[in-house]
Amino acid sequence: MNKFALITGASGGIGQAIAMKLAEEGYSLYLHYNENVSSIRDLLQALSIYNGEYIPIQADLSTPQGYKKIVENVFTIDAIVHNSGVSHYGLFVETDPATLEKMTMIHMTSPLLLTKELLPKMIRQQSGSIVLITSIWGQTGAACEVVYSTVKGAQIAFVKSLSKELALNGIRVNGIAPGAVDTTMLSQFSSEELEMVKGEIPMGRLAAPKDIAESVSFLISERSSYITGQIIGVNGGWYT
Q: In CATH, which of 1.10.3720.10, 3.40.50.1000, 3.40.50.720, 3.40.50.10800 is domain 3-234?
């Protein structure tokens, strides 16, 4: 039987890697994106070597109504991967209310409302898996990334609480907390700064998007059937 997974933020580096991995494993995919049309077109082309159904859905999750566009286009659902995210770097005292509202909407409000609307489909079938791509900074916090750390910490609390509520319904909820991943999100840092970061990571390198994708694959599969409420750190030993 064909299984369907929703990936938010599918046009980004991590989202594309997740999509390719799940398609390889036989999933049909709902591929959410916002502005990066060319990237989602390239992804659809890359996915054409597999035999699934791949449905792009445009929605702005920084707006109060954005999540509804996704809900309206999702019919059958077996897995949800909340991957959409944007970073914000700067002193907390200088953070403007619009930025705070946007970060909260993208990382907290929209994922919660989207999950709430899709859960009845999973509850009816008494099965499903939800994975949130959170962050190492949600676990330990980071200066100059206070808002980002806060919303990612909220995602971790969501995983831990919702997993308990849904366990008897056969629905598992877990999170992945990447460290520094080699994507455009790090483009604001110089090569010298990135080398310093690598020097702090015990494994001596940044994560590749495929490292995150492999972990998602594991957490939504039957290989992890007794794992729920967990935050898997994919960080090269940077934070343990």
A: 3.40.50.720
